[in-house]
Design goal:
By secondary structure, chain A is of the alpha/beta class. Chain A is built from 17 helices and 16 strands. In chain A, the strands form 4 sheets. Chain A has a 6-stranded mixed β-sheet, sandwiched between helices. In chain A, strands 2-1-4-5 form a 4-stranded antiparallel β-sheet, with helices on one face. Classes of the chains: A alpha/beta (about 375), B mainly alpha (about 220).
Chain lengths: ~375, ~220
């Protein structure tokens, strides 16, 4: 757990200097990722560096697990905190393995143990240890260097990590990949992480809590959902942008927004039954389910003509959406396939519910109320 | 032709003079490394100290070697070393300070601040940082300073023949006093060849000492 209490840093003479961080207080519970977010120069890096005492605060305190960091020897403190610097900063004279093992070596770990650990870590991010252990940083691509930078911070298994724009110097596609890798590792590692970013999408994706900074002040400290649906100040509202509700889509799973139980009809049912059901529910379409529980077709209210069985009226299902994905992907599928109603399926392809534009809007509105 | 004949007839003498020459330069530069590198490291802590020390070292190097030898005669005579090997070594130590201190200082000061910060942030002590990061990265530039010192002082040592320090300069001084171009040319050419050979050797050592990850064109 990390707690900041009225943390303040003024560079230059007191009174005339600039206050880079101004009375910031917040708390990050164990195992959570807190993203410090804000425009350039708002004090994110300065705040972070006061945690591992690379910068001494002008006033205020930092506690890690209840202990005031100024009571810990700075060198011991830093060895107990994983640190990823903004510029990657791999040592060019050391191999990848030696870079990863810097802190274990400083701590005097058994060499064999630390190199085995380095190999395991490399494996976790999809870098073949046999190929990469002996390489030098300049023989790596930017994305590989960034991965090694993160592994170096993980190597000594410190419970706390400070990451200053760790995925900054990398193209958007690879950034998504690394973010996913990190989140996957975090699921098992459960580190307490302070993560600096100035990318809102990254923050929404990574954070349990987002701390929004403006000119050294903490403007809002909240979960991504809460932040997106209840921005506290006009500044934050502008910062989040007009498309913030679209960002919110990322945070809601299909499973939480779909309509259940889904009305279904059988192929042998008369279309009249489908029409009745749709009139009752107000949905623009209904799913025709096969005997095995999988969606077999879709009947659109606008296309129903006269009599016959559902089998004749149904159109093929052009797409289904897994219940595990987020609403953004679901909406993308609905747009691409021009489906006002999309069946939601589990891993076996069995129908679990349906998603309509209206149900999406409603679930976004709900998250606003809940937040 | 005559010169070649002379050189050929005196090969063993040239060899022993060259060894004297190398002895002066290598002993002196080794001592200069032991003083210059720590001074260069120390002055990275204070810009003012750095300016002062580098200024002093630059002053030293502007003193003509003949004048320096002349100055040392009265200073060292009381302890019996007014001329010969000792003042030659001292002169070379003094002249070596500037290239060694300056290169050490700039190399360390030029280490990417991000790497320094990474080292501090991961909990390296100042000495660990120096040993694991800063010195390895500065090594090529420090070695370049040592090379400069060696090559420059092979020339200075040639002049030390005038105060009886021996070395290849003896051929030159005798050549001048006896108006014997054969000795003069032999001495001059031998000094040049020695300088080039030693420089090539040190370039090789520099390559050995350069961390693998820094060398250009490492096999991927
Ligand atoms: N050592 C320093 N001396 C004086 N001013 C500083 C120093 N370090 C930072 N500042 C100032 O403090 C403010 C906050 O800097 P900081 O590096 O924390 O910003 P940041 O939020 O990390 O920005 P970025 O997103 O660009 O990295 C800036 O105005 C900066 O100019
Ligand atoms: Mg920053």
């Amino acid at each position: 757990m990390i707690r900041l209490e009225n943390l303040t840093k003024t560079f230059g003479a007191a009174g005339s200097g600039i206050t880079a961080v101004d009375r910031v207080s917040f708390e990050v519970p164990e195992g959570e990722i807190c993203v410090l977010l804000g425009p350039s120069g708002c004090g994110k890096t300065t705040t972070m560096k006061m945690i591992n005492r690379l910068i001494e605060p002008t006033s205020g305190k930092v506690f890690i697990d209840g202990k005031d960091v100024t009571h810990i020897d700075p060198i011991q403190l830093r060895r107990s905190i994983g640190y990823v610097i903004q510029q990657i900063g791999l040592f060019p004279n050391k191999t990848v393995a030696d870079n990863i093992c810097v802190v274990p070596d400083l701590l005097g770990w058994d060499r064999k143990k630390s190199r085995t650990r380095a190999a395991e870590l490399l494996e976790m991010v999809g870098l073949q240890p046999d190929t990469f252990m002996k390489r030098y940083p300049k023989e790596l691509s930017g994305g590989q260097q960034q991965r090694v930078g993160v592994l170096r911070a993980l190597a000594a298994d410190a419970p706390v990590m400070l990451m200053d724009e760790p995925f900054g110097a990398i193209d958007p596609i690879n950034r998504e990949v690394i973010q996913d890798e990190f989140l996957r590792m975090q699921k098992t590692l459960r580190k307490t992480v302070i993560f600096v970013s100035h990318d809102l999408d990254e923050a929404v994706k990574m954070a349990d809590k987002i701390a929004i900074f403006r000119a050294g002040r903490l403007e809002q400290f909240a979960s991504p959902e809460h932040l997106l649906s209840n921005p506290a100040t006009p500044f934050i509202e502008t910062f989040l942008g007009t498309d913030r509700s679209l960002k919110l889509l990322r945070l809601v799973q299909v499973a939480d927004a779909m309509l259940t139980p889904a009305d279904t009809v059988r192929p042998e049912d008369p279309v009249a039954k489908a029409r009745d059901l749709m009139e009752k529910s107000g949905h623009p379409a209904i799913i025709m389910s096969n005997g095995d529980g999988r969606p077999g077709g879709i009947i659109l209210a606008s296309r129903i003509t006269g009599q016959g069985s559902c089998r004749e009226a149904a159109e093929p299902v052009r797409a289904t959406v897994p219940v595990k994905v987020d609403l953004r992907s679901a909406v993308a599928l609905m747009f691409t396939h021009d489906m006002p109603v999309i069946p939601c399926v589990d891993e076996d392809g069995k129908l679990q519910g349906v998603l309509t534009y209206r149900s999406i809007v409603r679930s976004l509105a709900n998250s606003k109320i809940a937040a | 032709m005559e010169t070649l004949q002379f050189a050929y007839d005196n090969l063993s003498l040239i060899g022993s003079r060259a060894l004297e020459h190398i002895a002066i330069v290598s002993v002196a530069v080794s001592i200069a490394v032991l003083t210059g590198v720590p001074i260069g490291l120390a002055i990275t802590q204070s810009k003012r100290a750095a300016d002062f020390v580098l200024y002093l070292a630059s002053m030293l190097i502007t003193i003509p070697s003949i004048a320096l030898f002349g100055l040392m005669i009265p200073l060292l005579s009381p302890i019996g070393y007014g001329i010969g090997y000792v003042p030659a070594v001292i002169a070379v130590i003094l002249y070596s300070q500037l290239p060694i201190i300056r290169n050490t200082y700039t190399a360390i000061a030029d280490v990417d601040p991000a790497l320094r910060e990474a080292g501090i942030g991961m909990g390296m002590s100042p000495l660990q940082r120096l040993r694991q990061v800063e010195i390895p990265l500065a090594m090529p530039v420090i070695m370049a300073g040592i090379r400069t010192a060696v090559v420059m002082n092979i020339g200075v040592t040639a002049i030390a023949a005038y105060i009886g320090a021996g070395g290849l300069g003896t051929f030159i001084s005798r050549g001048i006093s006896q108006t014997d171009p054969r000795q003069l040319i032999t001495g001059a050419v031998a000094v040049s060849i020695l300088a080039i050979a030693v420089d090539l050797f040190l370039a090789f050592v520099q390559k050995l000492l350069t961390p693998k990850g820094l060398a250009t064109g490492v096999a991927a």
